[in-house]
Amino acid sequence: MFQPILQNIYDDINRLNLQGKQADYIPELAKVPSHKFAINLTDISGQNYGVGAVDEKFSLQSIAKVFAFTLAYRLKADTVFEHVGVEPSGDPFNSLIQLEQENGFPRNPLINAGALAICDVLIGELPNPEQDLFDFIRKIAQDEQITYNPKVYHSEKATGYRNRALANLMKSFGRIHNEVEAVLDLYFKLCSVEMSVHTLSQTFLLYANHGRLFPTDEQILTSSQTKRLNAIMQTCGFYDEAGEFSFRVGLPGKSGVGGGIAALHPEKYAVAVWSPLLNPKGNSVKGIKALELLTTKLGWSIF
Length: 303
Ligand code: GLU
Prior knowledge:
globular, alpha+beta, single chain, binds glutamic acid, Beta-lactamase, two-stranded antiparallel sheet
């Protein structure tokens, strides 16, 4: 059932001639060929269906914030919410204004300020933060090859003025407990993780499967934690376009400025789509359209 629908979506996307623009504030991302498109769906029994460049790796960017938060939530349980909130920001992902007004407390873990606070938590909790975070990502992706792209990492590090500003602002409010540079370094590496849509949708199956890893059933998050994280993705996963994404697609998910989107339907499937052309809010134009077509053609959404 899924494969013909994905093929149909692929044909529709090609026909629609949708326009967008690659992220260029991270220079390395602007070099990705704009025509790339891939979609992969992993159903709840672990079966994969895909169309396009499903095995080509791309920069996860903000999608990786979900994995850092998963690890922090696992380590700290509900005390993680002493460091980040659960409210949508309604602001761009790298906005400073709200953070200043709210005394350096990030609205949620999926905006840049929130992910920086989570990197700070991980540095405080883990004996070898970088190694342990990447080992965790490899574990839930069940792929030993997963790593960050050094060119993207250096590109981000060289141009991350706004993230430096966010981290320093939080530090000034006493919200960052470790060295700002160490927090930024882990954050830039996290954002530079690469995966294919194939691996990404398999990894997101965890969130469709009550926090259990497929096929071992190892519980990574509890069922209740998974429900809560899915709620955060639903309300905060698409910058200041989370309402529009809920309205058009009706699934929890997370986007990144690399042009990826990962989403899931609890107990049914996880899906990942990639096209580097972004809309002005920073979300993949073809990615959103493809997922809108998917839930429309399937006739299922969580609503
Ligand atoms: N690394 C990007 C940044 O910090 C992530 C942005 C995103 O994907 O939303 O600006």
